[in-house]
Amino acid sequence: MSDTLSGSMLAWAIVGSINSAMGNWSTFIANMPDFARYATDPVATMWTHIVFVPFPAAIGGMIGILGTSCLQKAWGVTLWNQWDVYDAILDHSWTGPARLGVFLLAFSSALFNFGVILGANLLPFASDATTLFPAYFNLTRGMWFCCIISLALMPWKILASASGFLAFLEGYGIFMGPTAAIMITDYWIVHKGNIYIDDAYTSEPGSRYMYFHGINLNAAFAYISGMMIPFVGFLGTFGLPVPLAASRCDEIGWYVSAMVAGVVYVVLCRLHPLENVDRSISWEALASGTLAGRVQRGDGSVMRAVPDDDKETMIEEVVLEVTG
């Protein structure tokens, strides 16, 4: 059998690899607000992503591919996992310099993974757990709970082979893609960048973000719609017989699930508008009027926030109305 690919097989291999990469980065896309909220400038996160995300990731992946190819050529073994490479180095050369080099490499790998686990896994999980169950979790408890359930899920089985790991990333993307798509379309299209800060931090029945018993039904239906289309192909990665079309759909699962969920969510919000959406307000009008206490509506009228005598809240009062 030839070791090279061509034609449609090469094209699908490239598309599948990109989809796996998106599955790997999908958790960062969905959890980015946990970190971006500390930014003092709207563009503060842009340059860090442009400079420090694509180039190091591409260089690291290229070094891994070249290293595996060199080992296969020199020793006749194909090793993708770093710890397997370290064992192979010591098996071939049990010398002082080799042991020192393996120690430094292993230490740097451990330090790198510690940073990734802390920033990309523990902190987002703890933030979500604290938000959902504030009576039981804080950031510290959430992180420890994440560590416990991570061991119970036996992640080493996922890393048993390169193909299994890639299958996991492809499948992981179909669950995270709809989440990111709904978040993006909700902010940029549905709400036009407007957030009611006071309502975002209360679970009272009158809050604009309580929806139906705390569940945004439009978002829930859009998520299920986006996830279900490539889900059949995802089952094929576990050995179940599925049509070729379903397998192809799974190979681009992140894109399919994200696009379907985003489109369905926007359409549902048009057909069944959310209670916290005011289409007359212009783009990020609530944010632009926060400091001045005034909000510009899309129709030209201006609202001013004034204290309510009965509550420790602010009510909206129209102080200027533009008529035709």
How would you describe what is shown here?
With 324 residues, this protein is mainly alpha-helical. Among the domains are: 1-31 and 161-277, no CATH class; 279-324, no CATH class. Helix content is 64%, strand content 5%. It contains 13 helices and three strands, in the order αααααααααααααβββ. Strands 1-2-3 form a three-stranded antiparallel beta sheet. A hairpin with a 6-residue loop joins strand 2 and strand 3. Helix 5 packs antiparallel against helix 6, helix 6 crosses helix 7 and helix 8 packs parallel to helix 12. It starts with 6 loop residues before the first helix and ends with a strand. The model is unreliable at 295-302 and 305-324 (pLDDT under 50).
Keyword list:
324 residues; mainly alpha; three-stranded antiparallel sheet; 13 helices; disordered C terminus
Mean pLDDT: 81
Ends distance: 75 Å
Q: Tell how many strands the DSSP assignment holds.
A: 3
What structural class do you assign from the helix and strand content?
A: mainly alpha
- Helical residues, percent: 55-70%
Regarding quaternary structure, what we see is single chain
Give the biggest beta sheet: 3 strands, antiparallel
Number of continuous helical runs: 13
Strand order of the largest sheet: 1-2-3
Sheet-strand content, in percent, reads under 5%
Q: Which consecutive residue ranges, at least 5 long each, have pLDDT under 50?
A: 295-302, 305-324
Gross morphology: globular
Radius of gyration: 25 Å
Secondary-structure element pattern, one letter each: HHHHHHHHHHHHHEEE
